[in-house]
Amino acid sequence: MSEIRTDTISAANGTDPVTLTKQSAAKATYGVSQSSTTYLGIAADTLSSQSTNTSSYTDGGTGILTVSLSNAMSDNSYIFVSGVISTNNTSCLHTASTSSAVILRAADADTSTLNNTLQYGAIFGDLA
């Protein structure tokens, strides 16, 4: 496998350099529908085709989801940003998450009842 390493990318005319940092871009993104309905073009029980650095997901039961990363993070202290399609629901990172598997819980914000819904998110940090 080939590898390209650089700190700066410049336009062809040599102007407007863009500095690259390890923290500047999401290292993984995902959209998974545990619902029986298609939301935002993501069919029921599927991983979005727009997901990046995600190899698969596992449905762990109502509201529980594990997203497996194609390339692991350097550790599990990454920054996690998430959301759900349903009103008044939350998506939380489970403490059993690892550097290569992100475990999520989707629940109603008022009752904490777990719900199957569309969960989506991004992970920022350093890859292993």
Brief descriptors of the model:
single chain; 128 residues; mainly beta; four-stranded antiparallel sheet; 10 strands
Describe this structure as you would to a colleague.
There is one protein chain. This protein is an all-beta fold and 128 residues long. It has strands at 8-9, 18-19, 28-33, 46-47, 54-59, 64-69, 79-84, 89-93, 101-108, 118-124. It has one domain.
Strand arrangement within the widest β-sheet reads: 4-3-10-7
Count of separate DSSP helical elements: 0
Judging from the principal axes of the Cα atoms, what is the shape? Answer: elongated
Beta content: 35-45%
Task: Explain the layout of strands and helices.
Blueprint: E1 8-9, E2 18-19, E3 28-33, E4 46-47, E5 54-59, E6 64-69, E7 79-84, E8 89-93, E9 101-108, E10 118-124
Antiparallel strand pairs: 1-2, 3-4, 3-10, 5-6, 6-9, 7-10, 8-9
Summarize the model shown.
The chain has strands at residues 8-9, 18-19, 28-33, 46-47, 54-59, 64-69, 79-84, 89-93, 101-108, 118-124.
